[in-house]
Amino acid sequence: MKLSYRLGWLAFNALFRTYFRCRFYGADRVPATGPVVLAANHASFIDPPLIGSGVQRQINFLARDTLFNNPILGALLRSWEVVPVDRDGAGAAGLKAILDRLLKGGAILLFPEGTRTRDGRLQPARSGVGLTVIKSTCPVVPVRVFGTYEAFGRHHRFPRPRRVAVKYGQPLGFARERAEAATCGKARLKQIYQEVADHLMREIAELKPCDDVTRFPPG
Hints:
Glycerol-3-phosphate (1)-acyltransferase; five-stranded mixed beta sheet
């Protein structure tokens, strides 16, 4: 971790473990080095730093490109090596930036649903994450956050001290899908992107709460 990221990581870790009584499960399943995609459900603004706080490596987060226009915030985001993307996160420039980070051995956090849930439940996946997975060659780790909708969902103005948790799944390879995508036509390729995205959401849904982490909404 770079120094500025490490300092932020320590601060967020302290916040999540005290104010939110956070628990992390299966963080050792995230490769310690090399390129990897983390694909998670999205319920709150606190999801990215929460997911990053559970692993001992720097994560490349995505942020709307307009946020970089603020001199202070932009400098902080650049120091954390945050990837700028357009509003939809599906532009060619954004995809290139993501793939460049992966080629350099980075870890990228993506949200297959594309945006925060409005009701606390898992939403259908968008095909964009499938495109990114197919274009890359790295493993994909499904991740599920619990409790962040109750702690700081769309309907909350301020974070509430609710228990949250993160569970990391086993890495997925998608070798068969990548091999087919290399030779198939455009129509089939679009189907593969969506199939990969749907597969990821199923894997995320299979990650259930552990031990005393209870009373979270169903998938």
